[in-house]
Amino acid sequence: MAKKKIVKKAKAKMPAAKKPAKKVAKKAVKKAAPKKAPAAPKKKEKIDVRQIFANTPKIQKEGGQIRVLVGKAGLDGHDRGAKIIARACRDAGFEVVYTGLHQTPDMIANTAIQEDVDVLGLSILSGAHNYLVPAIIKQLESQNVKVGKDMLILVGGIIPDSDFATLRKAGVSMVFTPGASVDSIVEYIREHVQPKG
Fold first, then answer.
1. Dist. CA 44–CA 123, nearest whole Å
2. Is the pLDDT of residue 46 over 80?
3. Domains along the chain?
4. CA torsion, ordered 146, 149, 150, 153, to nearest 10 deg
5. What angle do CA 69, 59, 163 make, to 5 degrees?
């Protein structure tokens, strides 16, 4: 009699152990079901550089050729684009001064004043434009240069759209981003630096 009771108890315990395993498997299947894909982010509208820099003044120049300084400020070591712009300006009949690499804001400003340039073109690919450009403009203004009236400040390089307004407020006359043609830069200079008469 005692043996039969032990067998019955063992059988009763076995099915109870199998039941939880099946429940766990069902829960795992429910969790693995695919969720809805998140909505695609709204595409940010590109700012038109011409709208921000539309009211660029024209410089009235007294005789001679247009003088352009092409500068590379900071630790940016990529000067191929700057050399292409310098060569295009020279070919267009402008007098061109190229500062070379790794110039400080003071060095560029002093060279621009000594060379009596009409246009200061800054090539910046390092992302430091929000620091370097205002520093150069501040140095020019401290030496009585009226930025926008005596000298146009042009900036070229990798400049985010969101920084256009900041650079305009600092005194930049125009920004040229990657993809701008050399002809458009030369044409812009010709339109905005004109002889008195």
1. 26
2. no
3. 66-195 (3.40.50.280)
4. 90
5. 65
